[in-house]
Amino acid sequence: MPRGTHRRLRSFVALRHAHGAWRLGIFLFFTPIITRPTASENGRLADEKPKNCVRPVRSDALTLRMKFDHEFERMNSARAGCLPVRPPNAFGSGILESRILRLSDLGAPGAPSFHCVNWADPRDNFVNGLLELSGLSSASDTYATVQQKADQILSEFQTKLQANSIRIPINEPTVSGTWWNAYKGVIDTAVTKGMKVIVAYWAYQNGMPNDATAFRNMWQVVVSAYQSNNLVYFDIHNEPYGYSGTAWNTAAAQWLTDFPNVPKGRVIVAGTGYDDNVVPVGSDSRFNGCLLQLHIYGFWHQDWTTQAQWTSSMNAALGSYSARTIVGEWGAPMTDGSDYSNTNTTGDAFRSYVRAVSDVTHNGGMGSCYWPGLRNGDSYSMTTLRTGSPLTLSVNSTSGLDRLHWAWGI
User: Fold this and answer.
1) Residues 90, 94, 97, 100: what is their CA dihedral angle, to the nearest 10 degrees?
2) How many domains does the chain have?
3) Are residues 43 and 173 located together in one domain of the fold?
4) Nearest-CA neighbor of 357 among 290, 406, 285, 286?
5) 375 and 275 within one domain
6) Do 89 and 138 belong to one domain?
7) CA pair distance 267, 109, nearest whole angstrom
8) DSSP readout, 60-124?
9) 87 vs 55: CA distance, rounded Å
10) Residue 58 covered by a domain
11) Rounded to whole angstroms, how far apart are CA atoms 66 and 97?
12) Which domain-ending residue is among 67, 85, 106?
């Protein structure tokens, strides 16, 4: 905010009723009455659209309503948005512009801000041993070489995918041995580049840890290293299908008890089962303030060939908790030539799925982590790793990337 304008900002918090549910709105506004822009100013400002304009979103998203004066618009056009200036409205004369913004438009740290991709092990992350993200080698990489490789791959995520976050796996062997000293280079490099990092635990079998003590000790190492870093988030357990719903809530609550100094806003609690339902954890008051996580895949229901079926299922799995939820995994074939830009998807399960999930995510103002941004040998991978110096990535599907950007609201 420009010097001299910060004292003019006021805010209030209010509940509003929309689509049958009460939702929280945070309203920011400038108190002085502002001179109405002239017609020529309106035209000029409407034409001066910043690059990477953010699309408007439906009012049922978690929103901020902001009113900018003329000076603030000119000095912060890249952040203030890219819609034409509106005439005076119900909020009073002299308002230059009023629009609905996502939290992510302002770089907010909550769930909507995650423009995220999973960086995965070629073997998948259910590994009984050391995890090696695609492009890394536990046999030869040092901390320095992991940093170098990570810097190149993460830069490709940022420039070619416009990602601002990554989700990476951990397990007990990876954290308890010497490989952890090098593996941390991925996290350290990402935060240096200003990216958020979701560190997620994968149980290699049975959907739960084999050893509760080893599980806690693993997390103690990770928390001790990154609790003070606001860009690192702790995903307690990926797809905890080994627990009943009640047992998973108890286990996740125990994690919070074990690590009480971790800010709840940086703790991610998986939905039950395969992360496929966030309602049981969202409704548990012990997780108030925590982020939630939903997974949804097209291969789960290949007989669902309309967007309406996927939309209905996803909305039911989210309940009233979309504002706190990250879609931690969703993905579809990106190497078979599928055209996800075609709006006529009836009869095709995967295209119906991709368009429905991206629409629900976009309209709900939600963040998401595509599965995977990079995983060697995975037909769902959004990119392919090109070896050489430096390491580079090529995008596998432009129409798939367009739907990911739509989901992110960019």
Assistant:
1) -40
2) 2
3) no
4) 406
5) yes
6) no
7) 12
8) TSSEEEEEE-HHHHHHTHHHH--SPPPPPBTTBTT--EEEEEEGGGGT-SSGGG-EEEEE--TT-
9) 20
10) yes
11) 8
12) 106
* Domain residue limits at 234: 111-408
Three-state secondary-structure class, residue 265: helix
94 and 115, same domain (yes or no): no
Last residue of a domain, one of 106, 134, 169: 106
Q: Where are the alpha helices (DSSP H) in 231-292?
A: 245-258, 272-275, 279-282
Summarize pLDDT for 330-388 with one digit per residue, the tens.
Answer: 999 999 999 999 999 999 999 999 999 999 999 999 999 999 999 999 999 999 999 88
Q: Report if residue 1 sits inside a domain.
A: no
Beta bridge partners, 383, equal 395
Q: For 29-55, how does the pLDDT look when each residue is reduced to its tens digit (9 = 90+)?
A: 333 333 334 444 444 333 443 333 333
Shared-domain flag, residues 257 and 366:
yes
Ranges assigned E (strand) in 161-205: 165-170, 196-201
Dihedral (CA of 271, 364, 194, 131) sign: positive
Is 78 within a domain? yes
SS3 (DSSP) at 377: coil
Asked whether 332 and 356 are in contact (CB, 8 A), the reply is no
Q: 92 and 115 share a domain? A: no
17 is a domain residue: yes
User: What distance in Å separates the CA atoms of residue 408 and residue 24, rounded to the nearest whole number?
Assistant: 21
| 3-state SS assignment for residue 23 | strand
Helix (H) / strand (E) containing 371: strand 367-374
Is 129 strand, coil or helix? coil
**223 and 192 in one domain?**
yes
Neighbouring residues of 229: CB distance < 8 A, sequence distance ≥ 6: 191
pTM of the predicted model over 0.85: no
| CATH code for position 170 | 3.20.20.80
pLDDT of 76 above 70: no
CA distance 167 to 369: 7
Residue 102 β-bridge partners? 63
